Amino acid sequence: MSYSEFTIDDLQDKLQLEFIEDQRIFSNIVDYEISNELAIILEKFIPLALAIDTEKARSELIVAPLLAELKLTLKEISLFSGIEFNVDKSIGLSGRCDFIISKSKEQYSLRTPIFMMVEAKNDNIKSGIPQCGSEMVAAQRFNNNKNNEIKNIYGCVSTGTNWKFLKLTGNKFYIDTMEYYIQSLQKIMGILAAIAIE
Question: 0.85 exceeded by the pTM?
Fold first, then answer.
């Protein structure tokens, strides 16, 4: 078993997560001023990603530039893409992760994961929630094993144009009632920045 094989039932039964689905996690987030360079890139890349219309294109042309901008702006974090993150193979907390943000400047080694991002398969946000949730649990356990004092682990399932944020505190698994769209780019970046500097 790996992250991608988890189901909602697995999160609740195997990982003992308590689902909280009636709250806005980021209701007070201030919009983030993006660079002119990113605005120009996305103005060109978003239509291309939508025309190609594959998970890979959306990841490379929309998600990666956003997360790279965050990393280049906030020097105290590191960004990982497509790395193996094997925390506990015995219960399926293993596999390759789409994107991880770490609360550490160190780019050559993952030290303090705080944000796990999953690319939605077949444009289905809901189907990505179990994978993202299991990765968040793995990040929480990784941090506990390393004595990293991280209270909250965040996650997101995204199609590139739609973004659904998640939060894990203890065993409480929050699924934001809001879904954010790429037209609200400053809000999405504001959420990502708030997570990075929490």
Answer: yes
